[in-house]
Every structure is written in C-alpha cells, then in structure tokens.
Design goal:
Its EC number is 2.7.11.1. One of its GO terms (molecular function) is protein serine/threonine kinase activity. The chain has about 375 residues and is an alpha+beta fold. The protein contains 13 helices and nine strands. The strands form three sheets. It has a five-stranded antiparallel sheet. Strands 6-9 form a two-stranded antiparallel ribbon. The protein has a two-stranded antiparallel sheet with strand order 7-8. Helix 6 packs antiparallel against helix 8 and helix 8 runs antiparallel to helix 10.
C-alpha cells in the first residue's frame, strides 16, 4: 500500500494526545504580558490581515535542516510493513489496540528534536511550512511553523486557536489531517498531513485551466468535505485554490481553517476570506451561515474551468459590484450543464442556493465525476 492511500494506518504515537489548545494559547498570552513588561514590543500594529489579494510575504526562520541529499521520502514509513487488502483489517485492529495503550500516555509531548526537517514547502506571512519526518516511525509530515511575535503583532491569536481546535477534530479523506502541535518560547509547530502535489492554486496556474472532468472531480470531493464540515457545525468561510491541497493520489484536501468557525446556532457577521470568493451577504455585512461555503464552491468551479474567478476586475469596487449583482460572463467553451450548476450555486439569496447534497446529484457531476473516478491528471502522470 502506497503512502497516502486511504486506509493506511498512521503510526499510533502520531495521533493527537488528548489535550486542549488552552496551554498553547496561555503561553502566547504570557509572552504578550512579558513583552508589555519589558517594553520591547512595538506599539504599532503591523502585518494586518487583509481580505483582498493573494500575495504572501516572505518570512525567515533559522531552524537547522538536514542536507538535501540525505532527505529521501520513502513510499511508506520504512519502520512499518506493507499491508495488503487481506490483512488490512488485522493491521487496523493492531493499531487500535496500540492507540488504547497510548490514551493514558499524558506525558508525551512533542519537540523539534522528534523530527528531521527537509525542504521548505511554503512561506507565509506568519511562518513557514517544512517537509519533515518523524524519527521514530519515519512517517513523513508537513511541519507548519508559526512565529508567536507575528501572531501577537497581527492580533490573530483567535484565528490560530480556531485553526488548531477545529482541524484537530476533523477526520475526512478530503480534509488535511492535523496530528498534533507543540510550541517553544518563540514558535508554534503544527504537525500536518503531507500533501505531495502542493496547492491547487499552483497546479491551476501551471495548467491555465482544467478540463471539465478534472474540475468536476475536485468539485465533487470538495462538496463531500463541506457536507462533513457542516454536519460538524463548521463553516469554512475561506474556500479558494490557495487553501486546497492535492494529495499523493491527486485527491483534493481542504487545508487552511484559520477563518473557520463553529456555528451551532448563530449566524455570523464577520467579514473574512478573500474578496474574489466573498458572497453578497458577506460584502454587505449581513449575517451569514453555511450558505457562504456553497457560494464559494460556485466561484471555485468557475475558476477551475476558466482560470480566473468569475468576478475578477481591475479594482475592488468593480469586484464588489459584480458580486453584489452576480454579473458573470461565461466563455463559449463552458458546457451548458456546467453553467447550470454554477448558476444554481451563485445565487444572491443564500437560502435559494443549491444544497450541497443536490450538488452531488447534478447531471454535470454525475456525467464527469462518477463515484470512484480519479482526476485525469493522475492517469497522465502514471503514463
């Protein structure tokens, strides 16, 4: 069984040890207090979160890394045997029993010394992501490193807390796993599932646009993930190609939950996310609910097929106007069935948008993305 395939057993000690994020964020709060007492912290507020644009600033980090030539990714962790379908259930039972033994291991805490670090996978405003290998199992992960100082300067402690608390509890093949986290005096480390093929945004830029089969398969998988999120009372609120990763088998995975919220009963009024993907109710400051993710699904469908978001314009004022009145132009090569689906998702009134369960039943999805179909991208790579 290849690394990354559904059903592969994660080393038991990589599962999140039962704990809350409270201790992590108490440490940030104490850091804030210490900086206030010492007078070292600048009074200015820098690196504000921006709702528009897709640029990411560069960050530097001085963490010792393995030499490039010494970091080779195994197809599966070398310390674990390959398993076939015949013994998959036995391995699952064995893993479960080992997990039971680990439940009482409250003393287990992670540190940077538990990992071999490889190449950078990405750089962002608040830190970097590195390829890493857990030393005990040789299990390959992505290590997201966030700087406490930049989190404090931008006053986004609540966002990081949400990302940790929500993503740690979600279990779905189309959602990036968060295995755990730890921190030191200056940094927070998030242990994440490694998505081999990187961001969907990068892949889309390289190819210009996707054919309808590829786009439909990714819309199908994202729909399934959003249905799962909504059953868990989670609204993502920032669906876009930059926040979607492509796994080992070219499967789509939702990655960034920084703007997500638990919404058990209330309707939200916070303006968040990327301008191109904001729904009409969000740009007008109206209360919003799960339907904002349905709107974003329609925007993403258009961008995958065309290469640009549907409300792309020269300036933000024109973009706002296009979103508010749903002004969309479809290229001639877009099929009528694809237009029909997008037209039912990109509706001004939230309650009139096509329910996610009905998206999976839409003729465009059924025709281009039947259950079990893989993206043509994967087939072309195998050839």
């Amino acid at each position: 069984m290849e690394y990354g395939k559904e059903g592969y057993n994660i080393p038991p000690h990589l599962h999140l040890v039962d704990q809350t994020a409270g201790c992590l964020f108490r440490s940030i709060t104490s850091t804030r207090s210490k900086w206030h007492r010492s007078g070292d912290r600048s009074s200015s507020r820098r690196n504000r979160m921006q709702t528009a644009g897709r640029s990411a600033c560069q960050c530097n980090i001085n963490i010792p890394k393995m030499p490039t030539d010494s970091f080779k990714i195994p197809a599966v962790p070398s310390s674990r045997p390959l398993c076939s379908k015949a013994n998959a259930s036995d391995n699952k039972d064995q893993t479960s029993s080992r997990l039971e033994l680990k439940r009482d291991d409250k003393k287990k805490t992670w540190s940077l010394s538990d990992f071999d670090l490889g190449r950078p996978l990405g750089k962002g405003k608040f830190g970097n992501v590195y390829l890493a290998r857990e030393k005990e199992s040789h299990y390959v992960v992505a290590l997201k490193v966030l700087f406490k100082s930049q989190i404090l300067d931008s006053e986004i402690e609540h966002q990081v807390r949400r990302e940790v608390e929500i993503q740690c509890r979600l279990r779905h093949p189309n959602i990036l796993r968060m295995y755990g986290y730890f921190h030191d005096e200056k940094r927070i480390y998030l242990i994440l599932e490694y998505a081999k093929h990187g961001a969907l945004y990068k892949l889309l830029k390289e190819r210009g646009r996707f054919d309808e089969k590829t786009a439909a398969i990714y819309i199908r998988d994202l729909t399934k993930a959003l249905i799962y999120c909504h059953t868990k009372k989670v609204i993502h609120r920032d669906i876009k190609p930059e926040n979607l990763l492509i796994g080992h088998n070219w499967e789509l995975k939702i990655a960034d939950f920084g703007w997500s919220v638990h919404s058990p009963s209330s309707r939200r009024m916070t303006l968040c996310g990327t301008l191109d993907y904001l729904s009409p109710e969000m740009i007008e400051g109206k209360p919003h609910n799960y339907a904002v993710d349905i709107w974003s699904l329609g925007v993403l469908c258009y961008e995958l097929l065309v290469g640009l978001p549907p409300f792309d314009a020269k300036d933000s004022h024109q973009t706002y106007r296009k979103i508010r009145y749903v002004i969309i132009k479809y290229p001639e090569y877009i099929s009528e069935k694809a237009k029909d689906l997008m037209g039912k998702l990109l509706v001004i009134e939230p309650e009139e948008r096509l329910p996610l369960s009905n998206v999976l039943k839409h003729p465009w999805i059924i025709e281009n993305a039947p259950e079990g179909a893989h993206p043509p991208l994967m087939n072309s790579e195998q050839k």
